[in-house]
Specification:
Blueprint lengths: L1 E4 L16 E3 L5 E4 L9 E3 L6 E2 L4 E5 L6 E3 L4 E8 L5 E8 L12 H5 L3 H11 L6 E3 L3 E2 L9 E5 L9 H4 L4 H11 L7 E5 L14 E6 L7 H8 L8 E4 L1 H13 L5 E7 L8 E5 L4 H4 L9 E5 L6 E3 L11 E6 L62 H9 L3 H6 L11 H6 L6 H15 L1
Parallel strand pairs: 1-14, 2-17, 12-13, 12-15, 13-14, 16-20
Antiparallel strand pairs: 3-9, 4-6, 5-8, 6-7, 8-9, 10-11, 10-15, 16-17, 18-19, 18-20
């Protein structure tokens, strides 16, 4: 086992971690599958508003690669197909009714191990779970026409108020192993499983993987950071990555022959009154999962974590790749003499507030930017937050001037917006590093 103890990074001390207990959601009234969760997806619809669907029914396909299917996580009636700018489909909302499921062929562990690569690929495409596999570079749904150099599974989550992987997978060790067995048929390379000291015991008996232990501040849990340290991407390389929860979902699909619609979420944030883990339905309505009264004008509801999650409303739905819901106070106005505050209850990476004297004290965050965007100032501090051989400021400047060759030299293929999210958090110029990296990724993808 490789052991990586990373020193660069920063853990934001926030209040609102979930307790280590799992409960079942009392109800599921509606779910949604959201094409906007999948980078670069152009959906081709297979249902219309008013149609009745089963759990596992096809809702839409990828227009560019129609072999990639997106199936319903619950049975019910299609309430609405929500469109945004230029009539782009944002989500398909389903009102849930009595459960009924499409039936697929089930497999034993031995049968899965003996599958050919093409058979394994066909099963995964047909399951509707292929979108769980993403690839680097570009962080998009994996291209099934290529053979990846390796497959990475990260069971390390270092994000603020992170969900604990062992609770998300409670009782699913056998499903996880079967999912690994299928994935091993998709590559001639290795399957790398990253664990933390806290999750190592849960995955101790998993076979067919090469294990690595990562520890350190965020972003040590980011799969991009782990790829960089385990098997760095070279020119032309393609690797796939997938979350442990999705690996277990693949195993459940193989064992039961049904689309696995259930999912466990962590309810986090200082505005959540009762914080714990809840088992509901994939793509569930946020109001079905949280009993706390929600007010969009006073609270910021986030599908995911505070650094990279998507802002939602109380009528919103949890994203396909998200395992947590975070709710923090929403700033509703300017604070009187805010610039003169002592900052006893305000966290800052910089030694600007008195809270720096109590570094271990967790704070309740707000959405206050503490300023507005201004000239890009190079401070030399950003490099302390990125445990990779990447220069954040130089890379972002190369992206802004669209210097393709320099972007390649500075490591654009190795990063995704999440890898530089902390740079945005500490930036005195209020620069959105993630947006710039996304622009760079799109530019390189267009360049081929």
């Amino acid at each position: 086992m490789g052991v990586f103890k990373l020193k660069k990074g920063y853990n934001i001390p926030l209040q609102g971690s979930a307790e280590r207990r799992v409960e079942k959601a009392p109800k599921t009234t509606a779910v949604a599958v959201q094409p906007i969760d999948f980078r670069g997806l152009r959906p081709g619809m297979k249902v219309e508003a008013g149609d009745t669907v089963k759990r596992g029914s096809i809702l839409f396909v990828d227009k560019q690669r129609p072999e990639i299917l997106f199936r319903s996580p619950a049975a019910g009636t299609v309430r609405d197909i929500v469109r945004g700018d230029r009539r782009a489909i944002q989500r398909v909302i389903i009102d849930v009714s009595a459960d009924s499921a499409e039936k697929f062929e089930s497999y034993s562990s031995g049968q899965v191990t003996d599958l050919t690569p093409e058979a394994a690929k066909s099963i995964l495409l047909n399951s509707g779970l292929w979108p769980a596999l993403r690839q680097r570079p570009f962080s998009k749904i994996a291209d099934f026409e290529i053979a990846p150099k390796a497959i990475f599974i990260s069971a390390v989550d270092s994000a603020p108020l992170q969900a604990e992987t062992d609770l998300l997978l409670e009782g699913q060790e056998q499903n996880f192993q079967m999912g690994v067995n299928l994935l091993s048929n998709l590559t001639e390379g290795k399957i790398h499983l990253s664990v933390s000291p806290a999750t190592e015991a849960f995955f101790a008996k998993i076979e067919g993987v090469e294990k690595h232990q990562f520890s350190g501040p965020h972003p040590a849990g980011n799969v991009g950071v782990q790829i960089h340290h385990i098997d760095r991407l070279l020119a032309g390389d393609k690797v796939w990555y997938i979350s442990p929860r999705h690996v277990a979902q693949i195993g459940r699909f193989l064992a039961k022959g049904e689309y696995p619609g259930s999912k466990t979420y962590a309810l986090t944030g200082s505005e959540v009154l009762d914080r714990f883990y809840v088992t509901g339905t994939e793509g569930a309505s946020i109001s079905d999962l949280i009993s706390t009264p929600l007010d969009d004008s006073k609270q910021r509801i986030i599908s995911g974590n505070v650094l990279t999650g998507a802002k939602c409303t109380r009528q919103g739905f949890v994203g396909f790749y998200d395992d947590m819901i975070t709710i923090v106070p929403e700033l509703t106005g300017r604070r009187f003499f805010g610039w003169l505050r002592l900052g006893l209850a305000a966290n800052s990476f910089w030694p600007m507030f008195f809270s720096k004297l109590t570094p271990g004290k967790k704070q309740s965050p707000t959405t206050d930017m503490n300023g507005e965007e201004r000239a890009f100032v190079s401070t030399g501090e950003y490099e302390k937050l990125v445990p990779m051989d990447v220069l954040p400021v130089h890379l972002c400047k190369a992206i802004l001037v669209e210097d393709i060759e320099l972007m390649e030299q500075l490591g654009i293929y190795e990063v995704a917006p999440e890898d530089l999210a902390l740079c945005s958090y500490i930036c005195p110029s209020k620069i959105e590093f993630g947006d710039i990296i996304e622009k760079g990724v799109i530019t390189m993808e267009k360049e081929g």
